[in-house]
Design a protein that fits this description.
The chain is α+β, with helices and mostly antiparallel strands. Among the domains are: about 80 residues, Arc Repressor Mutant, subunit A (Orthogonal Bundle), CATH 1.10.10; about 60 residues, Orthogonal Bundle (Arc Repressor Mutant, subunit A). The strands form 3 sheets. It has a 3-stranded antiparallel beta sheet. The longest helix is centred in the N-terminal third of the chain and has 17 residues. It is flat and about 110 Å long.
């Protein structure tokens, strides 16, 4: 007689458990994999995010919130809860989703007013002048530069605009990180840009650099050294005493004087 599958009850949901070779196919519930499934798959009854709380951390709430935030970012306009439901399948007006609604409304990247949701952009940059305006403001406020990598999410053309401004010497672009792919932009005031004299530029470009194999010889001819060793000043640290690897040799004395016939009363 085959074993029957047992069912463990966890709150409102039940998960079948299989034994032996018999298996039960569990029908996917609405709310799981909501980001990948078509809209028609979750147009039925909505599942409250409160039902999937693990140790006080609601992982599904963060997943659903990310779906809503991405929709607001792509919309770039004011949208209603009905539009959010139509596009994502998440009903913010459902009382069972009050935690999700509160999380969205309190999010620092969302502006909620008169029942409409809008993504709050950190910087609105569409043209080169927009980026220059933001960089001027950051310079006046003596704040940090503008991270081009994080700006790509709000402005897809951020890297293209920054490269064009850097080519015109209107901004500075610093490359950071191990792979030098992180780029930070700073404003370059026109008053700080100075042009070198033409005579100096001509002299600079006329100077010929010798080949690497002849560089040492050329430097010595003009009295320069290709390499110099400088002694460090200051207190010289004491040398660490090294313990001998072979161990310390000791002299042993046998004191078995009660056996005079063995003649062992001598040092080795």
């Amino acid at each position: 007689m085959p074993n029957k599958p047992s069912v463990k009850t966890l709150g409102k949901s039940s998960v079948p458990e299989t034994h032996g070779e018999q298996r039960l196919e569990r029908k996917p519930q609405d709310g799981f994999g909501i980001a990948k499934r078509p809209k028609a798959a979750y147009d039925k009854e909505k599942i409250s995010v409160e039902e999937f709380t693990v140790q006080g951390l609601n992982h599904h709430l963060l997943t659903y919130a990310n779906i809503v935030l991405n929709f607001l970012l792509k919309s770039k306009r004011k949208v209603s809860a009905a539009e959010i439901k139509e596009e994502t399948g998440l009903d913010l007006n459902n009382p069972s989703n009050r935690d999700l609604k509160g999380f969205i409304q309190r999010n620092e990247t969302v502006s909620y007013e008169d029942g409409l949701y809008t993504y709050r952009f950190t910087h609105v940059i569409k043209t080169e002048e927009d980026m220059l305006g933001v960089l001027r403001k950051l310079r006046r406020e003596r704040k940090h530069g503008l991270n081009i990598n994080t700006l790509k999410q709000e402005c897809p053309d951020a890297e293209k605009i920054a490269s064009a401004l850097a080519a015109e010497n209107r901004i500075f672009l610093l490359q950071m990180g191990k792979d030098q792919k992180q780029r930070i932009a700073f404003y370059n005031p026109p008053s700080k840009i100075k042009s070198a004299r033409t005579s100096f530029c001509d002299m600079w470009h006329k100077q010929a650099i010798p080949e690497a194999v002849n560089l040492k010889e050329k430097l010595e001819q003009v009295g320069l050294k290709s390499m110099a060793v400088f002694s460090k000043t200051g207190a010289v640290p004491k040398k660490l005493l090294k313990r001998p690897s072979g161990g310390r040799k000791r002299r042993y004395k046998i004191t078995n004087v009660h056996l005079p016939e063995l003649n062992v009363e001598k040092e080795f």
